[in-house]
Amino acid sequence: MSLDIQRTDGFAPVDPKSFKQDKVELSLTNMTSRLEVSRREISANKKKEGKGKFESSGQILEIEGDALNLEVPANFCAIGHHIFLKIDLTYHSQRVSFTSTARVLNYKQTASSRAEITVSLLQFDRTTWNILLQILGKRQTEVSEFLAFAKGHC
Amino acid sequence: MDIKLDEQEKKYFLGKRILVVDPNTSSRAGVAKIFGKLGVKATMMTLVKTLDEARNSIKTLFPDFVVIDYSLPDGCGIELLESLRQEHQDADKIVFIVLTNNSSVAAVAHAAEEDTDAFIIKPYTVQSFKKSLLEAVKNKLNPSEYLKIIREGKDHLEQQNVSKAITLFEQALKYSERPSLAYYWRGHSHQVSQTLDKAAKSYEKGLQYNKIHFRCLKGLYEAFSEQKNHREAYLALKRLSHYFPANGERLNSVIRLAIQTRNFEDIELYYKNFLEVDGKNEKLVDYVCAALIVTGKYYFRNELADRGLKCFQKAAISCGGNPRYLQEMIIFLAEMGMDPEARKLMERYPAHFSGTNSFRALKYYVQCKTLSLGKQIEEGRRLLAEGVEEPLLYKALIRASREAGHVDTAEDLEIKAKKRFSSQKNRIPEQDQKPI
Q1: CA dihedral for A27, B100, A73, B128, sign (positive or negative)
Q2: Of A22, B31, B155, B312, which has fewest CB within 10 angstroms of its CB?
Q3: What are the boundaries of each domain within chain A?
């Protein structure tokens, strides 16, 4: 069926210039062993960190409900350990700092120095968590909309 | 969390082949896990780390899905699209998904330009991944009536049946709120028929509906370029570069056209784009340096010395100590009477150049302005005696000799220089020569 209404307003859902390289920073502390993984501290000055700090960072791979799959240095933790995690997300002018305790549900070594873990969030602020998820969703929607418009498949 | 699929979706994913390309083991495993939950068997998934491995895989494998990281150790993941098109006639049927940590404007625009089906930003939620995936599948498998008619028109266009193609594209116009794609294909058909005015008008019409439509923007630039309408071509390319920046080849073109159409003030804007380009090639660096120098000269000549100097400084940094560019700027500054700035630029010469004849001649040329005529001649002769036989040295020495009233000496030097450099055309730079 053809359309009666057409929009000649030269609209674009988002100006790609507004895309910013967003930052997702993850800091982890193994509450059982006191080992730490922190991207920020590592880039600042490795030598000052002393013992108990990993040289490579951790990263979030995916989020499923209240569980996260993370990549961490090998031997950072084991199944059943409790960890403290901090996620700092900056997107456009929004900045969210989320903290939580979490339990390690799965541990799988993926390379000689890296491991993938699944953690389940335990004590955290649900509102902040939802805001974080909303921001992640929003940036994906913006990118997908831009892609659809740029291709003209809309 | 389980992914719930309807029956049609479950059926669709059965037996599909997946190629996952990601340097990160855990990321590959994560994507494989999602496809596993969608019903794809592990044996149907190929997981590789690099672009090279992916290119090898597609020689024997026709994947239904490619999920590839944007930044691979040996290149950009989007490059695989080109390889797929070369290897497989039906490459358009492959759902091509780019997965990335890089949500920069350059990366997103690049994905849009290359017709990727989805661009998923890490970290992602499993739900958002599934949503993007299913949308991409839906668009591929169940295109709207609008896209179906366009596809039919494209088939006619491929068979050189241009008038039938145009009829179909015009028919498609009625099926979308924003029929930019139909206008693009109508314009493209006109372009194929060399009715370039009609082509440009069609692209413009498409942009009235959607100002960021990549193909209409690109088509408009190409139509004006074919018409040799450089001014309009530049304006179209400037619009395109605003929304889709930092493409190496296109940056060359927009810089060249900006200079050609004397839009010098835009060069600094493109310099910002240039800074964001990954893997800058020699040609692009050449274009940018030359454009900055030309723009700098333009500012100097228009009494905007501060801006001119800034352009020169940017060129000096970008050229990485290339004597060709440094010499051009140093000579210009010296001739503008900006000796301290010229000397400062000389410090950017790589250390191993400092003993070369060309460097010594340049140094002498810059120093001349601060020396008495007698000293200039004395120093010039000393350098000549030491074998510094450079055109620039002759130029300064001839000038000093003339100014000092030593006409015979100046003429002797001119004859000597012409004889010495006769085989090297333009080796003696004239006062107003603009090699760049």
Answers
A1: positive
A2: B155
A3: 20-151
pLDDT per residue as tens, chain A (154 positions): 555 555 556 566 666 666 666 678 899 999 988 888 875 433 333 333 334 444 457 889 899 899 999 989 988 999 999 999 999 988 877 889 999 999 999 998 887 788 889 999 999 999 999 999 999 988 888 888 888 888 887 6
Would you call B29 and A15 a contact, using CB atoms and an 8 Å cutoff?
no
Closest CA–CA distance from residue A18 to any residue of chain B (Å): 8
The Cα of B293 is separated from the nearest Cα of chain A by a number of Å equal to: 27
Residue B87 has phi, psi (to 5 degrees) of: -80, -35
Q: Which residues pair with A53 in a beta bridge?
A: A36
CB A140 within 8 A of CB B129: no
Phi-psi region of B286 (alpha: psi -120 to 50; beta: other; left: phi over 0): alpha
Q: Which residues of A touch B145 (CB under 8 A)?
A: 1
On whether the CB atoms of residues A71 and A41 are closer than 8 A, the answer is: no
- Helix (H) or strand (E) run with residue A119 in it: strand A114-124
Partner-chain contact B211 A143, CB within 8 Å? no
Domain A20-151 has CATH 2.40.10: yes
Q: What are the tokens at B170?
A: 């015009």
Nearest chain A CA: its distance from B240 CA (Å) = 11
Q: Under an 8 A CB cutoff, do A24 and B123 touch? A: yes
Cβ within 8 Å, pair B102-A21: yes
Q: Which chain A residue is nearest to residue B184, measuring alpha carbons?
A: A152
| Tokens of residue A23, six digits | 């930052």
Chain A neighbors of B2, CB-CB under 8 A: none
Q: How far apart are CA B222 and CA B244, in angstroms?
A: 16
Q: How far apart are CA B434 and CA B329, in angstroms?
A: 11
